[in-house]
From TrEMBL:
InterPro entries: Aminotransferase_I/II_large, Kynurenine-oxoglutarate_AT, PyrdxlP-dep_Trfase, PyrdxlP-dep_Trfase_major, PyrdxlP-dep_Trfase_small. GO terms for molecular function: kynurenine-oxoglutarate transaminase activity; pyridoxal phosphate binding. PANTHER family: FI04487P (PTHR43807). GO terms for cellular component: cytoplasm. Belongs to the class-I pyridoxal-phosphate-dependent aminotransferase family. It holds the Pfam family Aminotran_1_2. Its cofactor is pyridoxal 5'-phosphate. It comes from Acidiphilium cryptum (strain JF-5). This is Aminotransferase. Signal peptide: none annotated. Keywords: Aminotransferase, Pyridoxal phosphate, Transferase. NCBIfam families: PRK08912.1. The keyword Transferase applies.
Length: 397
């Protein structure tokens, strides 16, 4: 037998990035019997008709490889949803690619657009898969930071991040973890930069239907002149509260969609056909479904935010996504956000995500991200546990 060779190291970037914070905090929550307000997933099932459609689609004999870019039903449903919600026209045969989750869609899009040496503008705080993929391709990230409490776009800094080597901007709106929904004015400013510097945008819009307070999600792709520059990414996981399904969909100009399909062909090749067909049923649901998805979540956001405020957290506004960011500095905790999230998981039995995990470098260290996509009784119980824990700590001081 050959011994294990230890001379040559595996890929150094992947070897060193460690396990994602979402997995770490979920494991810690299980270990301590904590309510998991960390990793973002709903604790109720998605719509019964969509699940029924998946079950039926498993039994009707179409279980072999589907077409590379996705089953026709889903590509047509994605095109129809683009028209219905945003007035975007897309050819389902040439401009839609179905992937195994938005995660794959993001990776495939970056692989498809970037060459080594290209520059990519990323906005901090950022979702944890963006930077490693940019680096794996050999591209260089230019980071621009939004600052709490209002997460406004620093326009001069964003403009300064663009240069002759910039290939693309990665934009996440509605944004994880901030709950920021980019305004039409901000998107217009970004659009002008993209045109001026002849760049693309990869738009992570997985929370497109989780927008509150009468605001509207505006795809960058829908702005004048941006149709041919944007890759728009959605996720059935978020739109149908079925995060384990991992069905993502890309809408892009045909030239780019073709190259994204080449990336997809080398990552997963295809995505389970039965779930794709069920998601097509979901995308055709009536407007009432999408309206109540958002209004139910807005009520949960209010419930959790009010509860956290009563305990003494400084809760930042969140206008979209599954998440609120809470400042724990007013509670007088002695430690950083990683310490805090570990502490509340172990001692209050409520898990959250340290916001510094969304910054590759130096970061604010007094914010925790709480997911509110849970049943009301679960949110109430989490608030009660935190309240009791911090009351006991204060009493012991
Ligand atoms: N982008 C963002 C901003 C997310 O929060 C998530 C959460 N899962 C994803 C992408 C990945 O989506 P999916 O589960 O469809 O891969
Ligand atoms: N997007 C989810 C979140 O931000 C987690 C996805 C994951 O665990 N990779 O919580």
């Amino acid at each position: 037998m050959y011994g294990v060779r230890r001379v040559k190291l595996p890929n150094q970037l992947l070897d060193n990035i460690g396990t994602t914070i979402f997995t770490i905090m979920s494991a810690l929550a299980v270990e301590h019997g904590a309510i998991n307000l960390g990793q973002g997933f709903p604790d109720t099932d998605g719509p019964a008709d969509v699940i029924e459609a998946a079950a039926a689609a498993l039994r009707d004999g179409r279980n072999q490889y589907p077409p590379l870019t996705g089953v026709a039903e889903l590509r047509e449903a994605v095109a129809a949803a683009n028209r219905r919600f945003y007035g975007i026209e897309a050819d389902p045969a040439r401009e839609v690619v179905v992937t195994s989750g938005a995660t794959e869609a993001i990776t495939a899009s970056l692989l498809a657009l970037l060459d080594p040496g290209d520059e990519v503008v990323l906005i901090e705080p950022l979702y944890d898969t963006y930077l490693p993929v940019v680096q794996l391709v050999g591209a260089t990230a230019r980071l621009v930071r939004l600052n709490p409490p209002d997460w406004a776009l620093p326009r001069a800094e964003l403009a300064a991040a663009f240069g002759p080597k910039t290939k693309l901007l990665l934009l996440n709106s509605p944004m994880n973890p901030t709950g920021k929904v980019f305004t039409r004015e901000e998107l217009g400013f970004i659009a002008d930069l993209l045109v001026k510097h002849d760049c693309y945008a990869v738009c992570d819009e997985v929370y497109e239907h989780l927008v509150f307070d009468g605001l509207q999600h505006i795809p960058l792709m829908s702005l004048p002149g941006l149709r041919e520059r944007c890759v728009r990414i959605g996720s059935a996981g978020k739109t149908f509260s079925l995060t384990g399904w991992k069905i993502g969909y890309v809408t892009a100009p045909a030239r780019l969609a073709g190259v994204i399909a080449r990336a997809h062909q080398n990552l997963t090749f295809t995505t389970p056909p039965n779930l794709q067909r069920a998601v097509a049923v979901g995308l055709a649901k009536d407007d009432a479904y999408f309206a109540s998805l958002a209004s139910d979540l807005a009520a949960k956001r209010d419930r959790l935010s009010e509860g956290l405020r009563r305990i003494g957290f400084g809760v930042l506004p969140s206008h979209g996504s599954y998440f609120v960011t809470a400042d724990f500095a007013p509670l007088g905790f002695n430690g950083d956000d990683a310490d805090f999230c570990r502490h509340i998981t172990e001692h209050a039995k409520v898990a959250a995500i340290p916001v510094s995990a969304f910054y590759p470098g130096e970061a604010p260290r007094h914010y925790a991200r709480f997911a509110f996509c849970k049943r009301e009784a679960v949110l109430d119980e989490a608030v009660e546990r935190l309240a009791a824990h911090f009351a006991a700590r204060r009493a012991a001081e």
